[in-house]
Amino acid sequence: MQLNGSMNRTFAAASLATALVVSAAALAAGEPESPPIPRQAAPGGQAPPIDREPLRDSAIDSEAAELELAKLRLREGARLRDVAGHFHRTGDSLTFIDGENREIGGLQNLNLERIIRMLKSVEEPESVTWSVSGVITEFSGRNYLLISRAVFKTASPPPAPESLVQQPPSPK
After folding, report:
1. Which one of 22, 29, 86, 141 is separated from 4 by 20 to 30 angstroms, measured CA to CA?
2. pLDDT tens-digit series, residues 142-161
3. pTM across the whole model
4. DSSP codes joined into one string, 26-72
């Protein structure tokens, strides 16, 4: 069977295209690995040990961390009612940290402004305990709280039991 001129050119172009694809795939795969460099034997005849850092599976670590965060995350629309916790202040933004160590960003409203104003007057703002109510929102995998009510509870944690020493009753 004999091919005419245009069919020859088509066949040649297809062959060239196939060769280019195969060559590009080989280049994308990278250069072949270089052969291992032989280690020189120490004077005692033994090869020196190779110091290697242990392998860490960062994907597993990040998945575990994300799973922990997901456990702490609240659903959109959840309502908090009289939840005890404290606020962490960064500039003009506040983060509410509840008893389960959930960090919930405070959404700007008049209640948040009042809390900021009050915390500016305290030496240790994170020592103030609050009872907070509000609605949870979620954005980019993080919770936020629209505060509807915040009640100042205590300015410092209660004293440790060890620090409370019982005084013996005074004789009369």
Report:
1. 22
2. 999 999 999 988 765 555 66
3. 0.52
4. HHHT-SPPPPPPPPPPPTTSSPPPPP-PPP--HHHHHHHHHHHHHHH
